[in-house]
Amino acid sequence: LCGSQFWNSTETWYTNDPDFTPCFEQTALVWMPCAFYRLFVIFDFYYLKASLDRNIPWNKLNVTKALVNLGLLVITALDLVMALVKKGGDSGLPRYDLDVWGPIIKFATFLLLFMFIPLNRKYGVQTTGCQFLFWFLLTVLAIPRCRTEVRLNADRQKILDSAQPSEQDFSWEEYQFVSFFIFFTFSSIMLILNCFADGMPRQTKYQRGENEIPELSASFLSRITYQWFDSMALKGYRNPLEEKDLWDLRPQDSCSEVMPIFAHHWNQNVR
């Protein structure tokens, strides 16, 4: 698959300087986030179907997401083209399955994520947990390869410095080094962007006022850490809370929404 070992326990466990093999870093640590998102993408489709809002306007956040995601598509496609053109044949460099299937798997995943940017905007989905977790896993699991690439590049520079100056040919290792860090930078930017919720939808089922509960517009990260509640907690710490300090009830939890559902099941059981 890679032209090298997939797993070597002497490099990972039985050593004072543990590290993964390059093959493991370029396959398992990249494909696991892709598999995770493909497995749970059904939740993103559910969010679209269940959303009661519509038409989030284009803004700096979703435009930046689209551009960075497009950049990931371009760099991944370029990886595939370079592998097909510069490796194999008369180049003298062996072309492995990873050189072809690695970019294809990443490109397909990024394309799926790219499609959700306008869909989320159209159907008023301000944040999704699946996409945040994908970018989080992709970025965190790429950190070991950062260490490996920096070490390999330092070793290459030492060899080049000690060698006689000559005309340099194309170096696949140098291209991989540059390509990976562009990929890692874009992935990190996408992770940061997904820490924030998108703008307010223009069309909503419920009237949204100035005193609405912040949870409605909170990002996935804010919801799982309850960061949206910090302002209320801080206000209550400084002064006793009064009724005017409280946020409006979520429309979904109001009597006008809950009571018909309760009455339907109550009457059904009474009958």
From TrEMBL:
Bilayer topology term: Multi-pass membrane protein
Keyword tRNA processing (UniProt): no
Domain ABC transporter TMD0, first and last residues per copy: 11-148
Matches recorded under InterPro entries: TMD0_ABC (IPR056227)
Pfam families per UniProt: TMD0_ABC
Top-level taxonomic group: Eukaryota
GO cellular component terms listed in the entry, alphabetical order: membrane
Full protein name: MRP1
Organism of this sequence: Drosophila takahashii
Transmembrane segments: 28-47, 67-85, 100-117, 124-143, 175-197
Keywords associated with the record: Membrane, Transmembrane, Transmembrane helix
Lineage: Eukaryota, Metazoa, Ecdysozoa, Arthropoda, Hexapoda
Compartment list: Membrane
